[in-house]
Design a protein that fits this description.
It is built from 10 helices and 9 strands. By secondary structure, the protein is an alpha/beta fold. The strands form 2 sheets. It has a 6-stranded mixed sheet, sandwiched between helices. A 3-stranded mixed sheet has the order 5-7-8. The longest helix is centred in the N-terminal third of the chain and has 19 residues. The two termini are 38 Å apart.
């Protein structure tokens, strides 16, 4: 039996795909969660990977957490589950590489929370998003109550969390949840193309991501310190020399970067 999460490479230089593959609907159980954690750790340590696409295949992104696991839970088990799932999704969020979720069909519950942990979301026109936990007498436990308001604003997020309703691809685009909507069969190729553009970028992309992530929730003076540190670090990169030399000799947009 194949792993429920695997790392795929070769689609484009510097791009890796985190492929979810647990029949029938990529619902997370503890084994799949731990497998995702292992794959994310491997990606984080691989300097040859500069951009990552997260994809569940053409039939479903991830339809949440396996609800059967919840039936015997008491408070202690629920807290332990939420802490672990949050830790894994936070590891996704803090990957040094640029991350893009390519969503076909359902991204519900924990699947939606995984997509929210990515920096960008590209949707097929068949995509459906939602946090239906409230309909089970529960609430999101993998960051949904925190990342969704940061993505679309607190009032809109509360409406989606409180009702548990589904959002189709067009509404998700209007809300700013997804960067683009494509015909279903083009969602993954579009995400790969986007990832390839980032993978061809300079090492300063990672530093820009670090500055934004570190500064986002801090008071402005502290956030500016994160930017200052990242800006200074950019001057230690090989790509800094390549970019400046190319600009001075050939004008903007002509540099070929190494990612170092």
């Amino acid at each position: 039996m194949s792993d429920p999460v695997r790392l795929e490479t070769g689609e484009a230089p510097g791009v890796a795909t985190i492929r979810l593959d647990r029949p029938k609907v990529n619902a997370f159980d503890s084994a799949m969660t731990e497998c995702l954690a292992e794959v994310v750790d491997a990606v984080a340590a691989d300097d040859s990977v500069r951009a990552v696409v997260i994809w569940g295949g053409p039939r479903v992104f991830a339809a949440g957490v396996d609800v059967n696991d919840f039936v015997p839970f008491g408070r202690a088990e629920a807290e332990a589950f939420s802490r672990r799932f949050n830790a894994v999704l936070s590891a996704v969020e803090h990957l040094p590489q640029i991350t893009i979720a390519a969503v076909n069909r359902y991204a519900l519950g924990g699947g939606f929370e995984l997509a929210l942990a990515a920096e960008f979301r590209v949707a097929g026109d068949d995509a459906v998003f939602g946090l239906p936990e409230i309909q089970l007498g529960l609430l999101p436990g993998g960051g949904g109550t925190q990342r969704l308001p940061r993505a679309i604003g607190i009032t809109r997020a509360k409406e989606l969390v409180y009702t548990g309703r589904h959002v189709d691809a067009d509404e998700a685009h209007r809300l700013g949840l997804v960067s683009a909507v494509h015909p279903a069969e083009e969602a993954y190729p579009a995400a790969l193309e986007m990832a390839a553009r980032f993978a061809a970028g300079p090492a300063s992309l990672r530093l820009a991501k670090r500055a934004i992530n570190e500064g986002f929730d801090r008071p402005l003076p502290e956030a500016l310190e994160a930017e200052i540190a990242a800006f200074a670090d950019a001057f230690t990169t090989e790509d800094r020399h390549i970019g400046l030399r190319s600009f001075l000799e050939h004008g903007p947009g002509k540099a070929t970067f190494t990612g170092r």
